[in-house]
Amino acid sequence: MIEDEADLRVLMSDLLQEEGYAVESARDGVEGLRLIDQRMPDLILLDIKMPVMDGRMFVELLMARYPDRAPIVVVTAVESAPRRAAETGAEGWVGKPFDIDRLVKTVERHLRRPAPPG
Ligand SMILES: [Mg+2]
């Protein structure tokens, strides 16, 4: 998850960990790319408005570097969320202020799962 607001970062991280997900968080696109260079997650939750490197720039660099990137769900102001998702090429979106059920359902829907054995 890449989110610049500390409160929201901690809240989303706690909620998703309670749901059983392993969550790593970054506060801007630069930190996010650094984490992804270590390991590609199964899903990227992405804020758009962030200092240092915003969500759009992050997605451009991610796509250039990793053709086989994880699915992206943008988390941004509800009025612009669908448009932001379309602009960036993200698979999904969650509007802020977010609803916990919607966040979890959207993560579940877009999560890339490992291929089943055999
Ligand atoms: Mg932000």
TrEMBL record:
Q: Which UniProt keywords apply?
A: Phosphoprotein, Two-component regulatory system
Q: What does the entry give for GO biological process? A: phosphorelay signal transduction system
Q: Which residues carry this modification: 4-aspartylphosphate?
A: 47
- Looking at the record, the residues that make up the Response regulatory domain are 1-111
Task: Tell me which PROSITE patterns the record gives.
Answer: RESPONSE_REGULATORY (PS50110)
What InterPro entries would the database entry show?
A: Bact_response_regulator, CheY-like_superfamily, Sig_transdc_resp-reg_receiver
Q: What SUPFAM superfamilies is this protein classified in?
A: CheY-like
Q: Which domain of life is it from?
A: Bacteria
Name of the protein described by the UniProt record: Response regulator
